[in-house]
C-alpha cells in the first residue's frame, strides 16, 4: 500500500518593498489562503512597521476568519543601518541583493524546523527581487515568479538581451535604431521615452533602472512558472510570448479583509469619502489619484475626489493655490489615502484621472471607469497606450510647448470624457471582459485553479 504524503503545502510570498508590489501579491496570497493553503507573507521590517502602523490608525476591527488563519505576516531585516535613508530605493535594492538571501534562508530554516508537516514548499517572489529564488531552490522549495505589472512590461524586460545583441538598445537602455521598439503587431510600441527604465533627463539613474530590469532575466532562469497580474483577454499577444506564463488577473479585492494589517496598506484609508460619494449623482465624480491640476479641477466645475499624500511633499503641509480649498468646498473632497477599489466601484464615479500604474489600470478597467491619463514614470506610459490606443477607454492629457499640462487642457479633457459615449461604452465592455476572465470557468480562474493544484502535488 502506498504511503500518503502528509505534508501540507506552505507558500512563502516575498514582495518588493513598494505599495504597488506588496498589495497585489497580498491579493494573490489571500486567494491562495481561501483554498486552505497556508501562506507566510514576508516584508522587510520598515515596510512591516508601516503596514502595522497604518492598520492601528484604521477604523477597521480585527476579526478572525478562515482566510486570515491561513496567512501569517512576518518580516526580515532590510540590511540598511538606522543612519541611512530607507526611502532611497537604489540603496535599498543593493542592500537587499546582498543581505536578503541569508535572512530568507534563516527564516525558512526556522519555519521548517518548527513544523515538519508544513515546511515551505513554494516561494513566490516579486520579479524585481527574483534573484532570491536561488535560495528557494537550495531550500527545496519550488521557485515561482510573480509579475505585478503587465505581461507586455515583462516581455520587454526579457527581450533586453536580444535587443542589445541586435543593436536596438545601447548599454544604457537607450534606443539606437529608429524611434520605437515593437515586440508584436498587437502590442503598443514603445518610444524612447516610454521604456519602463527611461529617465529622459538623468542617464545615470536610467542606467540603474535598466540594469535592475535586466536582472529579470535571472529570475526567468530560476523558475519554470511566471504568475502575471493580467488576463489572456487583456494581453493575448504579450501572454502568448511566454509558454510558462499563467495570467491570473485582474487580482481584485473589493471586499476588505477583516484584519487591517492583511490589507497591506502603507497609509490609513479615509472611509469618509465613500459616504461623500453616496451623496453625488451617478457617474458624476472625477476620481483623482495625484498648481495647474488643482486649478483645472476647479475650472471644470465638476465634483471630484482627490487623493493627495502628505508624504509626497516630504512631510510638509500640501500647498494649494490661494483660496482653492474654500472655492471647491461645495463640490470637491480631498483625502490623504482612499480605499481605491471601493471608490472606483461606487456608482457616482464617472472618470478616473490616473498616472496609469498597472494596479490602478486594472482596478479602473474592472469597474468600467473611463480614464484621463497622466503618466510620469516607468511602465505608466505604456499602460497609457493600452488604455487610450488599444482598449479605447481613456484620453491623454497633453503638455504644452513648455511641458506644462495647463488648467485649460485639464478642463477640456474632463469635459470630453464625460461627453464621450463611445469611451463609456468601451469601458463597460472591458469591465465585462475582466469579470468573465476571473469568473468561474474564465481563463484566469482556470489558470489559478491549475496553480493551486500544482501547489497541492
From TrEMBL:
Keywords: Glycosyltransferase, Transferase. GO terms for molecular function: quercetin 3-O-glucosyltransferase activity; quercetin 7-O-glucosyltransferase activity; trans-zeatin O-beta-D-glucosyltransferase activity. Its EC number is 2.4.1.203. InterPro entries: Glyco_transf_N, UDP_glucos_trans. Residues 60-70 have a biased composition (Acidic residues). Belongs to the UDP-glycosyltransferase family. It holds the Pfam family UDPGT. The keyword Transferase applies. Residues 11-139 form the Glycosyltransferase N-terminal domain. CDD domains: GT1_Gtf-like. It comes from Handroanthus impetiginosus. This is UDP-glucuronosyl and UDP-glucosyl transferase.
Amino acid at each position: 500500500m502506498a504511503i500518503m504524503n502528509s505534508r501540507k503545502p506552505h507558500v512563502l510570498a516575498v514582495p518588493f518593498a513598494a505599495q504597488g508590489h506588496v498589495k497585489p501579491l497580498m491579493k494573490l496570497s489571500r486567494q491562495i489562503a481561501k483554498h486552505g493553503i497556508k501562506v507566510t507573507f514576508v516584508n522587510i521590517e520598515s515596510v512591516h512597521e508601516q503596514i502595522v502602523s497604518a492598520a492601528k490608525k484604521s477604523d477597521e476591527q480585527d476579526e478572525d476568519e478562515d482566510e486570515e488563519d491561513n496567512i501569517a505576516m512576518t518580516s526580515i531585516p532590510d540590511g540598511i543601518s538606522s543612519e541611512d535613508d530607507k526611502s532611497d530605493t537604489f540603496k535599498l535594492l543593493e542592500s537587499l541583493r546582498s543581505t536578503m538571501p541569508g535572512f530568507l534562508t534563516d527564516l525558512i530554516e526556522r519555519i521548517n524546523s518548527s513544523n515538519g508537516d508544513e515546511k515551505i514548499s513554494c516561494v513566490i517572489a516579486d520579479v524585481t527581487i527574483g534573484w532570491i529564488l536561488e535560495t528557494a531552490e537550495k531550500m527545496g522549495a519550488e521557485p515561482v515568479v510573480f509579475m505585478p505589472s503587465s505581461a507586455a512590461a515583462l516581455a520587454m524586460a526579457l527581450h533586453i538581451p536580444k535587443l542589445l545583441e541586435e543593436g536596438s538598445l545601447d548599454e544604457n537602455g537607450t534606443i539606437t535604431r529608429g524611434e520605437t521598439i515593437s515586440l508584436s503587431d498587437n502590442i503598443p510600441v514603445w518610444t524612447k521615452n516610454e521604456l519602463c527604465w527611461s529617465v529622459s533627463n538623468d542617464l545615470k539613474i536610467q542606467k540603474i533602472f535598466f540594469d535592475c530590469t535586466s536582472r529579470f532575466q535571472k529570475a526567468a532562469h530560476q523558475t519554470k512558472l511566471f504568475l502575471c497580474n493580467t488576463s489572456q483577454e487583456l494581453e493575448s499577444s504579450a501572454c502568448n510570448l511566454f509558454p510558462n506564463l499563467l495570467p491570473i488577473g485582474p487580482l481584485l479585492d473589493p471586499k476588505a479583509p477583516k484584519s487591517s494589517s492583511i490589507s497591506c496598506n502603507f497609509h490609513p484609508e479615509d472611509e469618509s469619502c465613500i459616504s461623500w460619494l453616496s451623496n453625488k449623482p451617478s457617474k458624476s465624480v472625477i476620481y483623482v489619484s495625484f498648481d495647474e491640476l488643482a486649478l483645472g479641477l476647479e475650472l471644470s466645475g465638476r465634483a471630484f475626489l482627490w487623493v493627495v499624500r502628505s508624504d509626497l511633499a516630504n512631510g510638509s503641509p500640501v500647498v494649494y493655490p490661494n483660496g482653492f480649498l474654500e472655492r471647491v468646498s461645495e463640490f470637491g473632497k480631498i483625502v490623504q489615502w482612499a480605499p481605491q477599489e471601493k471608490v472606483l466601484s461606487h456608482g457616482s464615479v464617472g472618470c478616473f484621472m490616473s498616472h496609469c500604474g498597472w494596479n490602478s489600470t486594472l482596478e479602473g478597467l474592472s469597474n468600467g471607469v473611463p480614464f484621463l491619463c497622466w503618466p510620469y514614470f516607468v511602465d505608466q506610459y505604456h499602460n497609457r497606450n493600452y488604455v487610450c490606443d488599444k482598449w479605447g477607454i481613456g484620453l491623454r492629457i497633453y503638455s504644452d510647448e513648455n511641458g506644462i499640462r495647463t488648467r485649460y487642457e485639464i478642463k477640456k479633457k474632463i469635459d470630453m470624457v464625460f461627453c464621450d459615449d463611445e469611451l463609456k461604452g468601451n469601458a463597460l465592455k472591458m469591465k465585462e471582459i475582466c469579470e468573465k476572465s476571473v469568473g468561474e470557468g474564465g481563463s484566469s480562474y482556470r489558470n489559478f485553479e491549475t496553480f493551486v493544484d500544482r501547489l497541492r502535488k
